[in-house]
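Friendly challenge for the regulars: who can give me the structure tokens for this chain first? No prize, just bragging rights.
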Amino acid sequence: MRKGLKKIFILFFWLAVWQAVSFFMDNSLVFSGPVEVAEALSRLVPTAAFWKTIGVSLGKIGSGFCLALAFGILIGGLSYRFSFLGELLSPVISLMKTVPVASFVILALIWMGSSRLSVLIVFVVALPVIALNTQTGLKSVDPQLLEMADIFRIRGMKRFWYLYRPAAAPFFLNACRLAVGMSWKAGVAAEVIGVPAFSIGEQLYNAKIYLETADLFAWTAVVLALSYFCEKLLLALGRILLREGGSVPDGGKRRKSGKGL
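First reply, four minutes later:
Bragging rights claimed.
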């Protein structure tokens, strides 16, 4: 209860600061306050175009993230299992990490146009985070536990469930937390550059063109809310699937998932 009140207080404090800055600047074209943004949201939310725009952007950014999740887990797992493959893919992963997003966006526009641009950009941004964290998580298994598993001939899914899963789970969930936020930032930035129809990036671009600062802030708030809820949903699903901190059945008995064997 006290923690919830503390969060509410912090939220209202920064809303008050925001409103105060807007009041002293006294120019809604330059800096809109929370009241103007709330008015813009109340105008946008009831429209069908608003929900269609959210659906299109969510579908494309979500598709790119799901592809990155699947390939990231695969690449991370194979890189751990076959060290040569990890060394072979290392330059590509490093390239994807370091090359500016704008460069990828321009190349993607040349190659494939703007319709699927955000899917590719999100994939490129999220893949290295998931792959590297997956590989690091698998490497973090205690060598003594692996040696004991070899002695007792624990193989296959049982080895994965009791040894690799609890070790890799924190790294994997942290990767998802980071990758979701990065995906929304990169995906929307790609939409602003490519301006595909019915996208949040198109709405941000139009807000800039027509000097609708309140709409710009409103759509930014929508992106923040979508990123937040996607992150919470993904982490909740990840904890359920990985049963992090929970228990797993073992011969009729239940034991903590972090207690491998």
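Residues 244-261 have pLDDT under 50 and may be disordered. The chain has two domains: 1-31, 32-256. Your move, everyone else.
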